[in-house]
């Protein structure tokens, strides 16, 4: 590869900055494409599971439906409620979205990761950045000056904070087995041995549950429980600011899928097919699992939510961690 | 345009990030609304984390984002949101106490600057940093080999404060 693309190591120079910006643009384009068709696929798959047709009017098989929806959101009026805290109200979607996109910077999409960073503490980076989004959600709920938005924002923040603990704990097992927090090294270690979903099956189950809660998706979609809270923290948002909140949620679905594929399913490694295709297949499997849950599960009660995280998930994750530590030390 | 002063872009990034930190710090002092102050402080925390990353301290930088920008800022926001919606600081007025505090702050800054300038810092050549280990590995080795006892003592302290917090927050039966 030409030296221009090897920007991860060595001092930063102007050509490297250019390549970094290029990488960010390519990643953004891919992400927006994935998000657009995730929304379409979600409606289509859930429709199929529930014996409906799903979107089928805009374009062949409704393939352009998401573009029409996005276009509609972009040309809508940007309404700021009179009693809202104006500057925070305008800022909140940005605070929510920026970290969601930044988490993708450490995901190794392909074997030759030319677009994303080779970062020594990539795993912690993901967890740290995803916590910043909670600020955006809370501020959005608070600045709207609406009781439903405030309750939704509070619920969302409490839920995301408490499920981040078992989520992080379930990932420590993987870090122990691979001996690294660098996502590239974790994938390499798996391509030499087995995918960590086999030895870390308990950790993987905890990860799946905690990730679903972290994404605020069914059965943990209490923050936007339509029947009690109208729509949660983004009740007052319209137009492209609302679109930004939705975009954030779906970028996180994509990013969490990437994380699951990288840490437990071997990332880009796999026989015959090229690396990026394997990665795409694994990410899609995770996203499909999320659709499946949403089509089949009822919502859990708010009083069960917190105790489930602290009294069930966390002890299981701890036991998994201790077990992994003992096995890796003895082995 | 002459970029030679910024041949290593790190220097340019350092000045930009420092500017952001200072602006956030000044804004934090100037804001009247408490929630804006918390947000500005979050900006300072994130900026400091970037400085750590710039210096090659990956783990400390990310820990800074996780603990300060993440956990502590959110905790403060929770506290503010659950209390007074319109919490506003009163207009600042000069008093004798404040004047002395200002003088004290200036003197402290001058002393710190003097000490930093007069200290001879050992500059590594950057290659043998951390004995060739990755940053988190080097920190782990140091913690568990060199500083095992302080590390265990700190964890004990954290455990005690955790239990204490639970004890304080526990519902009392007799009420």
Could you characterize what this model shows?
The complex is a heterodimer of chains A (331) and B (175). The mean pLDDT of chain A is 85. Chain A has one domain. The radius of gyration of chain A is 20 Å and the shape is globular. With 331 residues, chain A is mainly α. Chain A is built from 11 helices and no strands. In chain B, helix 1 (9-30) runs antiparallel to helix 2 (34-54) and helix 2 runs antiparallel to helix 3. Chain B is 71% helix and 0% strand. Chain B contains 6 helices and no strands. Chain B folds into 2 domains: 1-90, Four Helix Bundle (Hemerythrin (Met), subunit A) (Up-down Bundle), CATH 1.20.120; 133-170. Chain B is mainly α. The chains are: A mainly alpha (331), B mainly alpha (175). Chain A binds chain B through residues 11-14, 17, 85, 88, 119-121, 124-125, 127-129, 131-132, 134-135, 138-139, 142, 150, 154, 157, 161, 180-182, and chain B through 3, 8-10, 13, 35-36, 39, 42, 46, 58-59, 62-63, 65-66, 69-71, 73-74, 77-78, 81, 134-137.
């Amino acid at each position: 590869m030409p030296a221009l693309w090897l920007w991860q190591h060595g001092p930063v120079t102007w050509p490297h900055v250019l390549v970094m910006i290029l990488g960010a643009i390519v990643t953004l384009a891919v992400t927006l494409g994935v998000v657009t068709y995730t929304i379409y696929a979600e409606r289509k798959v859930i429709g199929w599971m529930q014996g409906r047709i799903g979107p089928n009017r805009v374009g062949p098989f409704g393939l352009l439906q998401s573009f029409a929806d996005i276009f509609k959101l972009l040309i809508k009026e940007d309404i700021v409620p009179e009693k809202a805290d104006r500057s925070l109200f305008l800022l909140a979607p940005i605070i929510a979205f920026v970290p969601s996109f930044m988490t993708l910077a450490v995901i190794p999409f392909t074997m030759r990761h030319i677009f994303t960073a080779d970062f020594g503490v990539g795993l912690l980076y993901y967890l740290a950045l995803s916590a910043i989004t909670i600020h955006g959600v809370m501020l959005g709920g608070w600045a709207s000056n609406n009781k439903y938005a405030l309750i939704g924002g509070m619920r969302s923040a409490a839920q995301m904070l408490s499920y981040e603990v078992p989520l992080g704990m379930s990932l420590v097992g993987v870090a122990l087995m691979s001996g690294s927090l660098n996502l590239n090294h974790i994938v390499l270690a798996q391509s030499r041995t087995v995918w960590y979903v086999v030895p870390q099956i308990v950790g993987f189950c905890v990860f799946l549950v905690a990730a679903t809660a972290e994404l605020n998706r069914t059965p943990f979609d209490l923050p936007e429980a339509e029947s009690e809270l109208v729509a949660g923290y983004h009740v007052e948002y319209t137009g492209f600011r609302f679109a930004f909140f939705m975009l954030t949620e779906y970028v996180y679905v994509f990013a969490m899928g990437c994380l699951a594929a990288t840490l437990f399913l071997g990332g880009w490694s796999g026989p015959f097919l090229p690396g990026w295709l394997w990665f795409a297949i694994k990410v899609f499997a995770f996203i499909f699992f999320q659709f499946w849950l949403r089509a089949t599960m009822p919502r859990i009660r708010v009083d069960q939510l917190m105790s489930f995280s602290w009294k069930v998930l966390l002890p299981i994750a701890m036991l998994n961690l201790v077990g992994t530590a003992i096995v890796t030390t003895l082995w | 345009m002459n970029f030679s002063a910024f041949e290593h872009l790190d220097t340019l990034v350092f000045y930009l990030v420092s500017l952001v930190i200072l602006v956030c710090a000044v804004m934090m002092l100037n804001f009247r609304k408490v929630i804006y102050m918390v947000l500005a402080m979050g900006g300072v925390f994130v900026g400091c984390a970037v400085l750590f990353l710039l210096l090659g301290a990956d783990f400390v930088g990310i820990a800074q984002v996780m603990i300060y920008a993440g956990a502590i800022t959110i905790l403060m926001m929770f506290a503010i949101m659950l209390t007074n919606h319109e919490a506003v600081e009163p207009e600042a007025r000069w008093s004798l106490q404040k004047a002395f505090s200002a003088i004290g702050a200036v003197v402290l800054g001058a002393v710190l600057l003097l000490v930093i300038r007069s200290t001879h810092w050992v500059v590594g050549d950057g290659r043998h940093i951390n004995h060739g280990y990755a940053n988190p590995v080097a920190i782990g080795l140091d913690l568990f080999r060199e500083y095992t006892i302080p590390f265990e003592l700190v964890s004990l302290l954290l455990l005690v404060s955790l239990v204490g917090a639970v004890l304080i927050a526990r519902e009392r039966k007799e009420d």
